[in-house]
Each structure stands twice: as C-alpha cells, then as structure tokens.
Amino acid sequence: MWRRTWLVFSQAVTVAVAVLFVLMTFKPAWLPAWAGATRSSGVLPAATMLQVEAPAGGASAAVTGYALAAMRAAPAVVSVTATRMSRNPHADDPRFRFFFGDGGGQQAQIGLGSGVIVSPEGYLLTNHHVVEGATEIEVQLADGRQTRARVVGSDSETDIAVLKIDLGQLPTITLGDVRALRVGDAVLAIGNPFNVGQTVTAGIVSALDRTQTQAGSSPFQNFIQTDAAINPGNSGGALVDAQGHLVGINTAIFSRSGGSLGIGFAVPVDTARQVMDALLRGGTVRRGWIGVEPRDLNAELADSLNLPVKAGVLITGVLQDGPAARGGLRPGDVVVSIGGKAVLNTGALFAAVASQAPDSTVAIGVQRGAQALQLKVQLAERPTTQRER
Does domain 178-282 have CATH number 1.10.260.40? Predict the structure, then answer.
C-alpha cells in the first residue's frame, strides 16, 4: 500500500516540476511574483545609491567659485556675426556674367566672433578684426535676443572695436583691476568658439605684458597670456577673474591647427577702456608720435658704448625733420624718462609717447654719452599707417 502511495506522490511531484519548468521557460508572465523571483534570469535587486542633500538655502546657496564668476559674467557676453561683401573669383568670366549679371560679382562672407556689453547704454567691446569691413553686424545675447549693431569706432593698433546696440534692460559686466592681476591667478574665457554656443573655459594667467613678435605687429599691443582655451569664435569675448570681473578682451592664439594649444592672448581691459573712451569722444584714437627707431638697452650694450646708465632705450635712428629731430634728439642718445617717468624698454617708450596728446610738449630725459639732458619735444600725431619698429 505504501509503495503505491509513494509512487503516486513521486509521479505528482515530477509532473509539477515539469509544468513549472515549462512555464518558467515559455510563459514566465503566468507565474506569480514569488515564483518569478526564483528564476535565474529574474529581476535583480534594486540598487541603493546615495544622493547629496539640497542646501538649506536653496540651489543658489551652493553656487561658489568658478560657477559664481561665470554666472556673473556670462549674461553680458554676446555672439557677433559680421557679414562682409567680397568679389566673386568668377566675376570676370563672361559666362558667369551672362547667367548672373554684373550683380553676381559680389558674394557674402560670414565672420563669427564674440563681444562684451560694458554699459547699460548698449556699448559693446569686441575685436577690430571681428568687424573690420563688415556691411552688417548681428548680435545675439545670452538670453536669446537678437539685434543689429553699428560700429561706433575701431582701432587696429590695439585690435579693439566699440559697437552700439539699442535694447532695453541689458546685462552688463563689471570691469576688473588689471594692476591686481598676478601670474598664476585663475581666469575664465567666455565666448562662442566655433559657433557651438556660449562656452566657458578655465585657466590661469600665464604671463603679463606679452607683445606680438610677428612682423607688422603694433607696438601698442600688450597682452595678458592665458592657458584658458581660446578658439576661433572666442575673439572679442571676455577674460574674467575669479570674481567674474572683466580683465581682458580675448584676441589671439598661437596655434598650428587653428585650435587652442594653451597659449592665448587678451587685450587688458584698461587698454580697451582707454580706446573706448577715445572712440566715444572723437570716433578715432589720436596718439602722440616722435619719429624714432628705438632699441632696448642692455648691460652689455651699455658697456660697449661706455654709458653710465644700464637701462633705457637706445635711439638708433631719427626721422629727418620729425618731432624728435626738431627737439634735438640724436642717434646714439639713450631715452631714460618721458614726462618724469622712467622708460625701461621700447614698449614703455611707445606707450608713454602715445599716451600724450598730439601737439603737446613733453620732457624727455636723455643720456648722451656722459652727459644727462632734458629735451623738450613737441609731439605730432602718429600716422595710422606708421609702424615704428
């Protein structure tokens, strides 16, 4: 009797296991949740993760450091689209003129850059090369608004241009103190690189008082060097300090590929402001000029010339009948001061002379051999095409 009972039980268990196996393989949805959880391919346990708690003061209370600087400065940085008309290379082809007429000889070229709103009246700073020769300039704000801009004035010597837009409630940026900048200070570059949209990159001040070395560069170009990524489209954008204050206008990069290699340059904001003030007053920048060929004086050169001074600017050439010649300056003289301020290199010489108004008279301290002299030189206006070396 017991054998028969055991046989029936074992057969029932075998059938039940077989049915359960078939259901788990082909119809798992028919099984109850407790049965489905036993499958080897069943649902995995829920993950346990840790989430940081929101600050008590709300999301804004957590904004610090670079994020706070970016929030302060980014609304005032705009994208600039400049349209230029150029001559079509096929304009002289008779077949081209037959199909497109004489009007087809002009074609539009689009240039992209950035700009910075520096006043609620709608004045913007950007680069001269961004808007040079543009027939139409479009500005897009960070909040999405778009408008036309007009050029108030432009200065190729410092690569600074001033634009004007007419919109209400404009975000503006606060100007920083360039004199407080030190090598190693953190800075942010804000602009529209490659037209991908507003972008913020971080770096440090790599050097101060950098000058361009390529032929034809202006003696008035005096840059902040940074390793914050600056790419095409960043030109005219903002370089800001860790507080979000404007310290420079991004201008140039050293690159073999066209992209950032960690060497970028910005025009100091104090230079940009001086240019802007001059352009707003008269539409142009007037600089003093004396007409000389200068060279930095070093200790070795001073010893070879038996000079009692070891620093200054050696005058190697004087323009005939120019302001310096009329004031008594001669080749071989060493300029040691202008207007009572020491002059240590050619950059300081150009800056000191250019800061004086044309037609004004300035005192120039000169070392002529063993003799120290004070010369009075009446400045002329620097020709716009002049490039003193």
Answer: no
The pLDDT score that the predictor gives to residue 258 is 58
List beta partners, residue 205: 226
Annotated active-site residue in 79, 114, 159, 333: 159
Could you say which architecture CATH assigns to the domain 71-164? Beta Barrel (2.40)
Q: Is 90 a catalytic residue?
A: no
Half-sphere exposure of 16 (CA within 13 A, CB side): 6
Opening angle at CA 47, ends 41 and 51, nearest 5? 165
Sequence ranges of the chain with CATH classification 2.40.10.10: 71-164, 178-282
What pLDDT digit, counting tens, does each position of 60-70 carry?
Answer: 555 666 888 99
Contact (Cβ atoms closer than 8 angstroms) between residue 267 and residue 209: no
CATH for 288-381 is 2.30.42.10
Q: Range with the lowest mean pLDDT among 6-15, 171-180, 190-199, 233-242? A: 6-15
Spot the catalytic one: 79, 128, 129, 337: 129
Quote the pLDDT of residue 217. 56
The answer to whether residue 303 is catalytic is no
**Active site includes 159?**
yes
